[in-house]
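Students often ask why inverse folding is considered easier than folding. One informal answer: many sequences map to the same fold, so there is more than one right answer. In these notes we will look at a single instance of the problem. The structure comes first.
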């Protein structure tokens, strides 16, 4: 049975936002988990709602999620070789905490924006200090 395609508008255009203080894996990982929540998806299907992700970044994120046990890569042989990615039980277990993190972020969105803007304007008043590395 074929699933309906992923909605290209399923994520807000500002996602992944640096204002969200919670992160699972890399920049794209939680969004990939959301894309897989209703069942397995092919690589090309995942790229549709993840506007701005490069093939290299998607590959790296999927490999990291697979390495950490959240996603499984499934290959099916046949006339047409098919590779799909699916959530493992461990990955599915992350959906609840992600829901809670998203709700918390929505509840505190204005505060997060105010703090970020205050930090940015305060940082503009201070000279940039670069950390020097020493070679050993």
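Output (designed amino acids):
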């Amino acid at each position: 049975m074929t699933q309906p395609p992923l909605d290209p508008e399923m994520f807000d255009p500002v996602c992944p936002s640096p204002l969200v203080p919670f992160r699972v894996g890399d920049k794209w990982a939680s969004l990939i988990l959301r894309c897989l929540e209703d069942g397995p998806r092919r690589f090309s299907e995942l790229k549709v709602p993840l506007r701005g992700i490069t093939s290299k970044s998607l590959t790296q994120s999927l490999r990291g999620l697979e390495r950490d046990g959240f996603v499984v890569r499934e290959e099916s042989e046949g006339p047409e070789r098919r590779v799909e990615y699916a959530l493992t039980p461990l990955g599915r277990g992350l959906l609840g905490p992600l829901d809670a993190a998203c709700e918390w972020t929505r509840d505190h969105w204005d505060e997060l924006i105010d703090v970020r803007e205050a930090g940015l304007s305060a940082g503009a008043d201070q000279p940039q200090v670069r950390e020097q590395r020493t070679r050993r």
